[in-house]
Each structure stands twice: as C-alpha cells, then as structure tokens.
Design goal:
By secondary structure, the chain is an alpha/beta fold. The chain is 53% helix and 17% strand. It has one domain: Alpha-Beta Complex (2-enoyl-CoA Hydratase, Chain A, domain 1), CATH 3.90.226.10. The strands form 3 sheets. Strands 1-2-4-7-9-12 form a 6-stranded mixed β-sheet, sandwiched between helices. It has a 4-stranded mixed β-sheet with strand order 5-8-10-11. The mean pLDDT is 95.
Length: 253
C-alpha cells in the first residue's frame, strides 16, 4: 500500500492514512481504501476496522492539486473512485470507527461520517465539516443524505450551504463526533471502543448494523443515480476552477 499503513491487531485492523502529513485524498488512496474495505469485509479473522490519520490531521480532503491536473477522462475516474470509496465504507458490514487525529474538512469529514463512531482530538484549533461550497466543489445529494443521517437533514442542509467547519466542541454538541479526547488518546480511545463493541455477539452486531443502515444505503444509491447537477459537470465551470486554483495557491504558500 502506498498511502495507507495496515496494522493488524488480534481481532481488528487499524488503517492509518499515511499520505504526507495532511493525507490529501487522491485516486491512489481512494482505490486502496476501496480494496481494503472489500478484502476486510470478507476476512473472517477481522471483526472491525479503525481508520486513523497523522497527528494534527485526519485528512484535509480531496487532493486539490491533483484535481487541477484532471482532464475530461481522468475527472470521470476521480469522481467514480470517490463514490466507490464512499459506498465501500458506508456498506462495510463490520464495526467501523474513525480515530480523527486532527483536521478533517471536506473529504476527510466524508470518510469520518461513513463510520459508526467518531472519536476526535480535543482542541479548538482542529476543524471538521463539509466546506465544499466556499471551495467551489459540488456536494451531491447522497452525501447530504449521509451527513443528515447523523445531524438531521435540516441542520445538515444549513451547514452545507454555509460550508461550516466545526470546532471539536461544536462537532460534539451537534452529534458530528461522539467523543473528544486529547490527541494522544484518540487512537487508544478508538481501540477501547472497538474492544467494547466486540464483546457483543458478532453476528447480532453485524445484523443490527446493516438493518439500521439499510434505509440510508438504499436512499444514497437512489440519489447517486439521479443528481440534478452532477459533481463532474459542476467541476468544469469557470467559477469552480477559479476557486480551486485560489485554494491550491493558498495551500502552496
């Protein structure tokens, strides 16, 4: 794996996002996440998965620099792989926990909300949320559905329009994360939560999870097939390209 380090424990696996310090999500990372989730879903020795990041950063979201190199064909691949990754995470049948080790805007937040539980590093310096609107990236309806699954549709709708990035305290208060702890306690707390979950009857645990997620998955699949304004279509608009270039320049500086 080029972008992910796999750490196997006795009954679960930790997937450490490891692409530079900030974990920008490129096609290679999306493909690796999709492949790992598919493999681990059928591995009988694995009962759960924790996704973690680097100290200070879970993931800054989609790799803006890579986005700006895309042409018509590679853009199709990029957004197809993004959706494949999201659905691979959302449909993963075993317990899935996000150990959010710092900033998690945009795509980083998407990975986190695919999980069953989210434990985040405490400190108002860190931010999490879907801030695509100010950046100029289209948020498709199935991602709104996923965001609303945790926050409620009305609140998710408003936060998306605002492009709101939450402090850890705000995220805890609105239900975006489930627990906040010191940075060096994020992964241990996630492991403790996983160990607690795995004391239950495993077949029942998986069955309840999939029953609870079934309406969400059905709705997300339907919405992904019927989007009034597609992400790829919007991506090529002049205003979107301008915003992305401004962001890339800011990141570069």
């Amino acid at each position: 794996m080029e972008t992910i380090q796999v750490h196997r424990k006795e009954a679960y696996v930790i997937l450490e996002l490891a692409r530079y310090k900030t974990n920008p999500i490129n096609v290679a990372m999306m493909k690796e996440i999709s492949q790992l989730m598919a493999d681990l879903a059928t591995d009988s020795s694995v009962k759960g998965v924790i996704i973690s990041g680097q100290p200070g950063f879970f993931s800054v979201g989609l790799d803006v620099k890579e986005l700006l190199t895309l042409n018509t064909e590679t853009a199709k691949v990029f957004f197809r792989e993004f959706n494949k990754m999201v659905f691979g995470l959302v449909q993963f049948p075993k317990p899935l926990i996000a150990a959010i080790t710092g900033h998690a805007p945009a795509g980083g937040c998407v990975i986190a909300i695919c999980c069953d539980f989210r434990i985040m590093a405490e400190g108002d310096v860190f931010r999490i949320g879907l801030n695509e609107v100010p950046v100029g990236v289209m948020v498709p309806p199935h991602i709104l559905e996923l965001y609303g699954f945790w926050l409620g549709k009305g609140r998710a709708y408003q936060f998306l329009l605002e492009g709101k990035l939450h402090t850890t305290t705000e995220a805890l208060n609105c239900g975006l994360v489930d627990k906040i702890v010191d940075l060096d306690r994020v992964l241990p707390a996630a492991e403790q939560k996983m160990q607690q979950l795995l004391t239950s009857d495993f077949d029942t645990l998986m069955g309840v999870k999939m029953n609870l997620r079934h309406p969400l998955i059905i709705q997300m699949i339907a919405l992904a097939k019927d989007t009034p304004i597609g992400t790829e279509q919007h991506f090529w608009q002049e205003s979107s390209q301008k915003r992305l270039k401004m962001l890339a320049d800011k990141i570069g500086k």
